[in-house]
Amino acid sequence: MNTYDIVVVGGGPAGLTAVIYTSRASLKTLIIAGNPPGGQLIETTEVENYPGFPNGVLGPDLISNMRRQSEKFGAISINENVISISGNKKDGFQVKMKSGKEFLAKSVIIASGASAKWLGLESEQRFKGKGVSACATCDGFFFKDQEVVVVGGGDAAMEEAIFLTRFATKVHVFVRGEKEAMKASIIMQNKAFSNPKITFYFSTEIREVLGDDAVSGVKTINNKTNEKKLMENIKGVFVAIGHKPNTEFLKGFLDLDERGYIRVTDNTKTSIAGIFAGGDVSDYKYRQAVTAAGLGCMAALDAEKFLTKK
To answer: Are residues 304 and 284 in the same domain?
Structure first.
């Protein structure tokens, strides 16, 4: 079984930043980048809020550059998925792949990220990055003076809708249930309800996202009356129905919260000594590429410190 000082699980900004630090510190590092690799940025077109790119950068290009930089210092990368991790600080950690391969690590950094929950529409998937997004903070700027839709009834949806009013002329919020059943806190509901740019549609679901090369409208249905509507001139659809951390393979091994996020102390330390976490797999609040990279850096420095004391 091949042995590494550090195995990093996840090929997004957190994992790749961690690898840049660990491999540059002359630690034998393996990054298991996932299949497909790259995390949520692979599905993002223009990224304008990542430092160092005044003209913006395509999400896949940013990931490609980070990966090349990580490999520059000697890190080994493979595009596979992890199905289990076991072991302990004393004997090392066994990392098992879906393919059956296994690796032994003195320390592990989990940066497997989180995946946005989607509506499950074929048209939604077709227009991802072409008007359909799961991050208003990332993409709202591109919808200046346009009408957009937000799907969801929780705090995240209210925050997205309010944020989008900085750019959009009108924000239509589709809530699957009745107003009384909304999960958003009362204070967030009141903020959204009082915003003149926001209009709510209850018991309403999207049936189809319309457009040719980009989003141009949506078809909706009222799930109580079955009334169908066509809304034209919609240029953006923001799905805000939650995220799911990619931690299935960690159940029973690490301490996870009720939503599945890794519980951490001191930013990156998990419930098991020698296992560290960085990025959206533990951060459910910010979920930005730059914060993920920062947490990846912290996880790498903590892992390096752990190995020097071992």
So the answer is: yes
